[in-house]
Amino acid sequence: MDYFRYLDNRLHCEQVPLDQIAASVGTPFYCYSQGTLERHFDVFSRAFAAVDHLICYSVKANSSLAILDTLARRGSGFDIVSGGELERVKRVGCPGSRVVFSGVGKSGAEIQAALEHDILLFNVESHGELLRINTLAGRMGKKAPIALRINPDVDPATHPYISTGLRRNKFGIPHPQAMELYRLAASLEHVIPMGLDCHIGSQLTTLEPFVDALKRVKQLLIELRRAGIPLRYLDLGGGLGIPYDAQQIPPHPERYAEALLQELNGLEITLILEPGRVIVGNAGVLVAGVEYVKEGEEKRFIITDAGMNDLLRPALYDAHHTILPVVRRFDREEILADVVGPICESGDFLAKDRVLPEFHAGELLAVRSAGAYGFSMSSNYNTRPRAAEVMVCQDRFAVVRPRETIHQLMEHETLFT
Ligand code: LLP
């Protein structure tokens, strides 16, 4: 459930009409509902109340400081994948004891920075990384708490670009190598095996793959215990999907928690979860202005001031995002159209062959479910300043990141002389 709805035919974020924000901020802009964000976090966290757990929101989904701060105040920890994300979570005052560090390519400098911040767990993805962490922790006179990220070889049945738990993916340690690597970890002087981690993919719409993966890693936990390597943490990653359209409704976080907790019954561990999309996806929209409506030979194009540099998901994954008029009218015909951006690529679309109310130049539209992997994947392609970001709390809104200026884009460039 989110707090975007029509009141008097104007689409509101909580109590603020989006056209009012557009008049003050310009378009395109991302608009986040703080109330929705808090609600999603609370629903997710409450679902796991029966067990000792830590929610580590996955920063990559949306790393804006206002989002991180809202979640940190709610008690969230963070799943980071870079030194940059570490600096962001430090900026919102998150202690290291609530940070886990994932990713296949952690650099020496990133590992050192995470060791300095005394993070909770390094989710280690290779033999080489394990040895590197051991060496660097040794130099700093520290012991690094680690989990091995296990690749359970389970098909998450999602888009191939966002599936991570299959044998052919670059992620994690192959299940058959896990025991040997844990033995090595236990023998090293400057790492302590503390946990086991697994993340199989994103935008999952059924529970079976999660349960299958959990069954495999649970067995491993038991074997490790027998081998004298007891682990305190089990990190099950993120991946729960959100309803982008009415056709595919993923399970509610409560059903997800029930399925996992049933499988975990009797296992004494602290559970870590790394949700991203399910927390922030439907807490944000992208508001764009219509520049032109063009009659092509085959179809109509609604050309907006937001493009694939602002929201890459449709271009990259053929993702569906619902598009709504910001001001609703009932005297409009329905048309079949592509909603496209100004970028010089045919892949630059926000929606393809979509039935929509007729739009006119100068009107506003809202792209729903844009809170996750929207702004965080945006770029300056075509020398376009990145959009402004706005947060709403009840009847108040504030710009939490101003629109970039073209001057900023060229600020640090020089000519070659
Ligand atoms: N943990 C790890 C180790 C991850 O790699 C990810 C996402 C998450 C947690 C959070 O997953 P979530 O709960 O958000 O599904 N750009 C793509 C999604 C890429 C996901 C990458 N990893 C998209 O726009 O669909």
Task: Tell me about this structure.
The protein is an alpha/beta fold and 417 residues long. The protein folds into two domains: 4-32 and 281-410, Beta Barrel (Lyase, Ornithine Decarboxylase, Chain A, domain 1), CATH 2.40.37; 34-278, Alpha-Beta Barrel (TIM Barrel), CATH 3.20.20.10. The protein contains twelve helices and 21 strands. It has helices spanning 18-25, 34-47, 65-73, 83-91, 108-116, 127-139, 178-187, 208-226, 253-264, 277-280, 313-317, 406-410, and strands at residues 4-7, 10-13, 16-17, 29-33, 53-58, 77-80, 99-101, 121-124, 144-151, 173-174, 191-197, 233-235, 270-273, 284-295, 300-304, 323-325, 334-340, 349-357, 364-367, 388-393, 396-401. Strands 4, 14, 15, 16, 17, 18, 19, 20 and 21 form a nine-stranded mixed sheet that branches. An eight-stranded parallel barrel has the order 5-6-7-8-9-11-12-13. The chain has a three-stranded antiparallel sheet with strand order 1-2-3. The chain is globular and about 70 Å long.
SSE inventory with pairings:
Blueprint: E1 4-7, E2 10-13, E3 16-17, H1 18-25, E4 29-33, H2 34-47, E5 53-58, H3 65-73, E6 77-80, H4 83-91, E7 99-101, H5 108-116, E8 121-124, H6 127-139, E9 144-151, E10 173-174, H7 178-187, E11 191-197, H8 208-226, E12 233-235, H9 253-264, E13 270-273, H10 277-280, E14 284-295, E15 300-304, H11 313-317, E16 323-325, E17 334-340, E18 349-357, E19 364-367, E20 388-393, E21 396-401, H12 406-410
Parallel strand pairs: 4-20, 5-6, 5-13, 6-7, 7-8, 8-9, 9-10, 9-11, 11-12, 12-13, 15-17
Antiparallel strand pairs: 1-2, 2-3, 4-14, 14-15, 14-19, 16-19, 17-18, 20-21
Helix pairs in contact: 2-9, 5-6, 8-9
The structure holds ligand LLP.
Ligand LLP binds at residues 58, 61, 79, 102, 162, 199, 202-203, 237-240, 274-278, 313, 317, 372-373, 377.
